[in-house]
Amino acid sequence: MSSRGTERKKRDREVESPKENEQVFQRNKITVRSPLQSREKENQEMEEVKKMISELATQIKDDMRESNKQLLNERNAQLKEELKTIREELKQARGQLQEQNQEISDKYEEWKRAKEEMGKRVGEVESQLDRIEREKRRNKVVMMGLEIETGEQKQIIGKVTTFLEEKVKVESKVKSA
Protein backbone atom coordinates (compact mmCIF):
# COMPACT_ATOMS: atom_id res chain seq x y z
CA MET A 1 0.00 0.00 0.00
CA SER A 2 2.76 2.34 0.64
CA SER A 3 4.01 2.04 -2.93
CA ARG A 4 0.64 2.85 -4.35
CA GLY A 5 0.24 5.95 -2.14
CA THR A 6 3.57 7.34 -3.27
CA GLU A 7 2.77 6.72 -6.93
CA ARG A 8 -0.47 8.56 -6.58
CA LYS A 9 1.23 11.54 -4.95
CA LYS A 10 3.74 11.69 -7.78
CA ARG A 11 1.00 11.63 -10.37
CA ASP A 12 -0.88 14.39 -8.58
CA ARG A 13 2.19 16.61 -8.62
CA GLU A 14 2.95 16.02 -12.27
CA VAL A 15 -0.54 16.98 -13.50
CA GLU A 16 -0.52 20.52 -14.83
CA SER A 17 -3.31 20.92 -17.38
CA PRO A 18 -6.86 21.92 -16.36
CA LYS A 19 -8.30 18.78 -17.87
CA GLU A 20 -5.96 16.64 -15.91
CA ASN A 21 -6.85 18.73 -12.82
CA GLU A 22 -10.48 17.88 -13.29
CA GLN A 23 -9.66 14.24 -13.73
CA VAL A 24 -7.63 14.28 -10.53
CA PHE A 25 -10.49 15.90 -8.65
CA GLN A 26 -12.92 13.42 -10.08
CA ARG A 27 -10.70 10.58 -8.97
CA ASN A 28 -10.05 12.07 -5.54
CA LYS A 29 -13.16 11.69 -3.44
CA ILE A 30 -11.81 13.55 -0.42
CA THR A 31 -11.60 16.99 -2.06
CA VAL A 32 -14.91 18.41 -3.20
CA ARG A 33 -15.05 21.54 -5.27
CA SER A 34 -18.15 23.67 -5.45
CA PRO A 35 -18.98 25.55 -8.57
CA LEU A 36 -18.60 29.36 -8.57
CA GLN A 37 -22.25 30.04 -9.33
CA SER A 38 -23.44 28.36 -6.18
CA ARG A 39 -20.94 30.42 -4.15
CA GLU A 40 -22.21 33.64 -5.69
CA LYS A 41 -25.76 32.60 -4.92
CA GLU A 42 -24.78 31.80 -1.33
CA ASN A 43 -23.03 35.19 -1.08
CA GLN A 44 -26.19 36.92 -2.31
CA GLU A 45 -28.29 35.03 0.18
CA MET A 46 -25.84 35.92 2.95
CA GLU A 47 -26.00 39.58 1.96
CA GLU A 48 -29.79 39.44 2.04
CA VAL A 49 -29.66 37.82 5.49
CA LYS A 50 -27.22 40.50 6.67
CA LYS A 51 -29.51 43.17 5.27
CA MET A 52 -32.55 41.64 7.00
CA ILE A 53 -30.63 41.40 10.29
CA SER A 54 -29.55 45.03 9.95
CA GLU A 55 -33.14 46.11 9.22
CA LEU A 56 -34.40 44.10 12.20
CA ALA A 57 -31.73 45.64 14.44
CA THR A 58 -32.69 49.19 13.38
CA GLN A 59 -36.37 48.35 13.78
CA ILE A 60 -35.73 46.94 17.26
CA LYS A 61 -33.71 50.04 18.17
CA ASP A 62 -36.52 52.28 16.91
CA ASP A 63 -39.10 50.25 18.81
CA MET A 64 -36.99 50.43 21.97
CA ARG A 65 -36.59 54.19 21.59
CA GLU A 66 -40.32 54.56 21.08
CA SER A 67 -41.15 52.38 24.08
CA ASN A 68 -38.58 54.28 26.18
CA LYS A 69 -40.21 57.54 25.11
CA GLN A 70 -43.63 56.19 26.06
CA LEU A 71 -42.37 54.97 29.43
CA LEU A 72 -40.65 58.28 30.03
CA ASN A 73 -43.80 60.21 29.10
CA GLU A 74 -45.91 58.01 31.36
CA ARG A 75 -43.45 58.45 34.24
CA ASN A 76 -43.37 62.21 33.65
CA ALA A 77 -47.17 62.28 33.71
CA GLN A 78 -47.18 60.33 37.00
CA LEU A 79 -44.58 62.65 38.49
CA LYS A 80 -46.57 65.69 37.39
CA GLU A 81 -49.68 64.30 39.06
CA GLU A 82 -47.75 63.52 42.23
CA LEU A 83 -46.24 67.00 42.19
CA LYS A 84 -49.70 68.50 41.70
CA THR A 85 -51.11 66.59 44.68
CA ILE A 86 -48.09 67.51 46.80
CA ARG A 87 -48.57 71.17 45.90
CA GLU A 88 -52.26 70.95 46.83
CA GLU A 89 -51.37 69.31 50.14
CA LEU A 90 -48.75 71.98 50.76
CA LYS A 91 -51.29 74.69 49.98
CA GLN A 92 -53.76 73.14 52.43
CA ALA A 93 -51.05 72.79 55.08
CA ARG A 94 -50.08 76.44 54.61
CA GLY A 95 -53.74 77.45 54.96
CA GLN A 96 -54.06 75.43 58.16
CA LEU A 97 -50.82 76.91 59.45
CA GLN A 98 -52.07 80.43 58.76
CA GLU A 99 -55.33 79.64 60.56
CA GLN A 100 -53.42 78.27 63.53
CA ASN A 101 -51.11 81.29 63.54
CA GLN A 102 -54.16 83.57 63.48
CA GLU A 103 -55.71 81.66 66.38
CA ILE A 104 -52.46 81.90 68.32
CA SER A 105 -52.14 85.63 67.68
CA ASP A 106 -55.79 86.13 68.68
CA LYS A 107 -55.20 84.17 71.91
CA TYR A 108 -52.03 86.16 72.52
CA GLU A 109 -53.90 89.44 72.11
CA GLU A 110 -56.65 88.17 74.40
CA TRP A 111 -54.12 87.13 77.03
CA LYS A 112 -52.34 90.45 76.66
CA ARG A 113 -55.60 92.33 77.30
CA ALA A 114 -56.40 90.05 80.23
CA LYS A 115 -52.93 90.68 81.65
CA GLU A 116 -53.40 94.43 81.32
CA GLU A 117 -56.81 94.19 82.99
CA MET A 118 -55.32 92.05 85.77
CA GLY A 119 -52.53 94.58 86.15
CA LYS A 120 -55.11 97.37 86.47
CA ARG A 121 -57.14 95.33 88.97
CA VAL A 122 -54.04 94.52 91.00
CA GLY A 123 -53.14 98.22 90.96
CA GLU A 124 -56.64 99.17 92.10
CA VAL A 125 -56.59 96.53 94.86
CA GLU A 126 -53.17 97.72 96.02
CA SER A 127 -54.34 101.34 96.10
CA GLN A 128 -57.45 100.30 98.03
CA LEU A 129 -55.29 98.38 100.49
CA ASP A 130 -53.00 101.38 100.90
CA ARG A 131 -56.04 103.64 101.48
CA ILE A 132 -57.53 101.23 104.01
CA GLU A 133 -54.21 100.95 105.85
CA ARG A 134 -53.90 104.75 105.95
CA GLU A 135 -57.44 105.05 107.33
CA LYS A 136 -56.72 102.47 109.98
CA ARG A 137 -53.58 104.28 110.99
CA ARG A 138 -55.42 107.59 111.10
CA ASN A 139 -58.07 106.20 113.43
CA LYS A 140 -55.57 104.58 115.74
CA VAL A 141 -54.03 106.46 118.59
CA VAL A 142 -51.23 104.94 120.55
CA MET A 143 -50.89 106.17 124.07
CA MET A 144 -47.89 105.66 126.15
CA GLY A 145 -47.33 106.32 129.73
CA LEU A 146 -50.91 105.78 130.89
CA GLU A 147 -50.97 103.57 133.91
CA ILE A 148 -53.71 100.96 133.83
CA GLU A 149 -53.57 98.14 136.27
CA THR A 150 -56.38 95.95 135.04
CA GLY A 151 -56.37 93.57 132.11
CA GLU A 152 -60.05 93.69 131.25
CA GLN A 153 -60.96 95.43 128.07
CA LYS A 154 -64.04 97.27 129.40
CA GLN A 155 -62.12 98.87 132.22
CA ILE A 156 -59.31 99.88 129.85
CA ILE A 157 -61.80 101.49 127.46
CA GLY A 158 -63.42 103.39 130.35
CA LYS A 159 -60.11 104.72 131.69
CA VAL A 160 -58.92 105.78 128.20
CA THR A 161 -62.20 107.61 127.57
CA THR A 162 -62.03 109.51 130.90
CA PHE A 163 -58.38 110.35 130.30
CA LEU A 164 -59.18 111.83 126.87
CA GLU A 165 -62.07 113.85 128.24
CA GLU A 166 -60.23 115.21 131.30
CA LYS A 167 -56.71 115.76 130.06
CA VAL A 168 -57.03 116.27 126.29
CA LYS A 169 -60.60 117.57 126.41
CA VAL A 170 -61.71 115.57 123.40
CA GLU A 171 -64.80 113.49 123.25
CA SER A 172 -64.17 110.28 121.37
CA LYS A 173 -65.58 106.87 121.16
CA VAL A 174 -63.02 104.14 121.85
CA LYS A 175 -63.82 100.99 119.95
CA SER A 176 -61.16 98.64 121.23
CA ALA A 177 -58.31 98.73 123.65
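The above is record 1. Record 2 follows with the same two-line structure.
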Amino acid sequence: MRIWSHNDTGATIRNASVATSLPSGTTLIPNSTRDCLSPRTTDPAWPSGPDTTCGETVNDAAVWSGADLTTSPTAGIQGRSASATSGDLTTGWSYVGFSMTAPYVDSTTTITETASLNGSGTGHPSSSGTITVSD
Protein backbone atom coordinates (compact mmCIF):
# COMPACT_ATOMS: atom_id res chain seq x y z
CA MET A 1 0.00 0.00 0.00
CA ARG A 2 1.29 3.49 -0.83
CA ILE A 3 -0.09 6.57 0.89
CA TRP A 4 0.73 9.55 -1.35
CA SER A 5 1.10 13.16 -0.27
CA HIS A 6 1.50 16.11 -2.62
CA ASN A 7 2.99 19.34 -1.29
CA ASP A 8 2.34 21.95 -3.98
CA THR A 9 2.65 24.97 -1.69
CA GLY A 10 6.04 26.06 -3.00
CA ALA A 11 7.35 25.89 0.58
CA THR A 12 8.30 23.23 3.10
CA ILE A 13 5.48 21.95 5.32
CA ARG A 14 6.87 21.94 8.86
CA ASN A 15 6.10 19.26 11.48
CA ALA A 16 4.22 17.15 8.93
CA SER A 17 2.93 13.69 9.80
CA VAL A 18 1.16 11.04 7.77
CA ALA A 19 -1.59 9.14 9.58
CA THR A 20 -3.69 6.15 8.57
CA SER A 21 -5.10 2.92 9.95
CA LEU A 22 -4.95 -0.57 8.55
CA PRO A 23 -8.21 -1.58 6.89
CA SER A 24 -10.36 -3.97 8.92
CA GLY A 25 -9.32 -7.59 8.50
CA THR A 26 -5.75 -6.83 7.39
CA THR A 27 -2.47 -7.26 9.27
CA LEU A 28 0.75 -5.27 8.90
CA ILE A 29 3.75 -7.23 7.64
CA PRO A 30 6.48 -6.27 10.15
CA ASN A 31 9.42 -4.18 8.96
CA SER A 32 7.75 -3.24 5.67
CA THR A 33 7.10 0.48 6.29
CA ARG A 34 9.30 2.89 4.32
CA ASP A 35 9.05 6.57 3.44
CA CYS A 36 10.01 7.75 -0.04
CA LEU A 37 10.39 11.08 -1.78
CA SER A 38 9.50 11.26 -5.46
CA PRO A 39 9.17 15.01 -6.02
CA ARG A 40 8.79 15.03 -9.79
CA THR A 41 6.87 11.82 -10.41
CA THR A 42 4.30 12.14 -13.16
CA ASP A 43 2.25 9.08 -12.18
CA PRO A 44 1.79 8.20 -8.50
CA ALA A 45 0.88 4.62 -9.47
CA TRP A 46 4.44 4.23 -10.79
CA PRO A 47 6.93 6.35 -8.82
CA SER A 48 9.60 7.62 -11.15
CA GLY A 49 12.26 10.20 -11.66
CA PRO A 50 15.96 10.43 -11.02
CA ASP A 51 15.30 12.13 -7.68
CA THR A 52 13.16 9.31 -6.21
CA THR A 53 14.73 8.15 -2.94
CA CYS A 54 13.55 5.86 -0.18
CA GLY A 55 14.80 5.70 3.37
CA GLU A 56 15.66 2.83 5.63
CA THR A 57 12.86 0.71 7.06
CA VAL A 58 10.86 2.74 9.57
CA ASN A 59 10.85 1.63 13.23
CA ASP A 60 7.49 -0.16 13.59
CA ALA A 61 7.41 0.19 17.38
CA ALA A 62 7.78 3.96 17.13
CA VAL A 63 5.29 4.74 14.33
CA TRP A 64 2.63 2.00 14.60
CA SER A 65 0.25 1.71 17.53
CA GLY A 66 -1.77 -1.41 16.86
CA ALA A 67 -3.43 -0.77 13.48
CA ASP A 68 -2.74 3.00 13.54
CA LEU A 69 0.22 4.63 11.78
CA THR A 70 1.61 8.10 12.45
CA THR A 71 4.96 8.79 10.79
CA SER A 72 7.05 11.63 9.48
CA PRO A 73 6.84 11.72 5.66
CA THR A 74 10.66 11.66 5.67
CA ALA A 75 11.44 9.15 8.46
CA GLY A 76 14.59 7.20 7.70
CA ILE A 77 15.49 9.27 4.64
CA GLN A 78 18.94 10.85 4.29
CA GLY A 79 19.95 10.32 7.91
CA ARG A 80 16.63 11.35 9.47
CA SER A 81 15.40 9.27 12.40
CA ALA A 82 13.55 6.09 11.39
CA SER A 83 11.43 6.61 14.53
CA ALA A 84 10.23 10.14 13.69
CA THR A 85 6.48 10.76 13.83
CA SER A 86 6.72 14.26 12.34
CA GLY A 87 9.17 16.14 10.16
CA ASP A 88 9.59 18.61 7.33
CA LEU A 89 8.09 17.81 3.92
CA THR A 90 9.60 19.58 0.93
CA THR A 91 7.59 20.39 -2.20
CA GLY A 92 6.53 17.67 -4.59
CA TRP A 93 5.26 14.13 -4.18
CA SER A 94 6.13 11.70 -1.40
CA TYR A 95 4.72 8.45 -0.13
CA VAL A 96 4.72 6.06 2.77
CA GLY A 97 4.67 2.43 1.70
CA PHE A 98 3.90 -0.67 3.74
CA SER A 99 2.78 -4.24 3.16
CA MET A 100 -0.11 -6.01 4.77
CA THR A 101 -1.85 -9.33 4.61
CA ALA A 102 -5.47 -9.40 3.50
CA PRO A 103 -8.10 -11.99 4.31
CA TYR A 104 -8.55 -14.92 1.96
CA VAL A 105 -11.27 -14.22 -0.55
CA ASP A 106 -12.85 -16.46 -3.17
CA SER A 107 -14.13 -13.52 -5.19
CA THR A 108 -13.08 -9.91 -5.73
CA THR A 109 -13.32 -7.61 -2.73
CA THR A 110 -12.34 -3.96 -2.43
CA ILE A 111 -10.82 -2.36 0.67
CA THR A 112 -10.73 1.43 0.84
CA GLU A 113 -7.79 3.09 2.59
CA THR A 114 -7.86 6.70 3.75
CA ALA A 115 -4.97 8.75 5.12
CA SER A 116 -4.18 12.30 6.14
CA LEU A 117 -1.19 14.62 5.99
CA ASN A 118 -1.01 17.01 8.92
CA GLY A 119 1.35 19.94 9.37
CA SER A 120 1.87 23.66 9.04
CA GLY A 121 1.09 24.41 5.40
CA THR A 122 -1.49 23.96 2.71
CA GLY A 123 -1.78 21.99 -0.49
CA HIS A 124 -3.25 18.54 -0.99
CA PRO A 125 -3.16 17.14 2.53
CA SER A 126 -4.92 13.84 2.04
CA SER A 127 -4.43 10.68 0.12
CA SER A 128 -6.50 7.58 -0.40
CA GLY A 129 -6.21 4.32 -2.20
CA THR A 130 -8.23 1.28 -3.07
CA ILE A 131 -6.97 -2.26 -2.73
CA THR A 132 -8.63 -4.93 -4.83
CA VAL A 133 -8.03 -8.53 -3.81
CA SER A 134 -9.02 -11.35 -6.15
CA ASP A 135 -8.75 -15.11 -5.96
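Residues 121-135 have pLDDT under 50 and may be disordered.
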